[in-house]
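Our preliminary data section would be incomplete without showing what the modeling component actually yields. Below, a chain of 205 amino acids is followed by its predicted structure, encoded as tokens that our downstream tools consume directly.
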Amino acid sequence: MNESGRVEAFSDGVFAIAITLLILEIKVPPHAGDHLWRALAQQWPSYAAYVVTFLVIGIMWANHHTVFGYVARVDRTLVFLNLLLLLVVAALPWPAALLAEYLRDGRASHVAAAVYSGFMVMHAVTFAALWWWLTRNGHLLDPKVDVAVARRTRARFAAGNAVYPALVALSFVSAPLTLALHGVMAVYYAFNQLSVPTRGKDAEA
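Predicted structure:
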């Protein structure tokens, strides 16, 4: 396995653990008896936070896989930028649990949503920094990758750098709406914002 493959394999492990930990925050209602349906329904904030954060982590993993499909070699800067990204990924189950716990709790819901959105800001900044480093001069990319085209994807891929801070502000208006818009942003990133055509053998010749 080459260096790029080792970095991606390690990253896959972190993504897998983080996405699995999310379900552990959905608890079995205790002593619900004949009111189990109602108790389950009352846990809707946990389901909402789970689904949105699952989408966020899953789509982040898919985009990470796309990025490393373009990478031919790694350097120390890329390794540390990737570790910063994984730092946020590994922590995401915590703000998801926080938001699920306080989503219906008045003022506390605004704080929880702001914390959740703050983590998404960090996610956007670290991922954008990683992509910027790779496309800065293309020295780590596969020779088949059109570096000029790759650079042009920066703006649409970094859209979260503008949207997520706005969602921090929106958190103090409506926590449920903020969570829903995080789901919308996940769907936005599901459409491959990093699609870069590669040059074939004929183009290289």
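The chain is about 75% helix and 0% strand. Residues 43 and 131 are 38 Å apart (CA to CA). Preliminary results of this kind motivate Aim 1 of the renewal.
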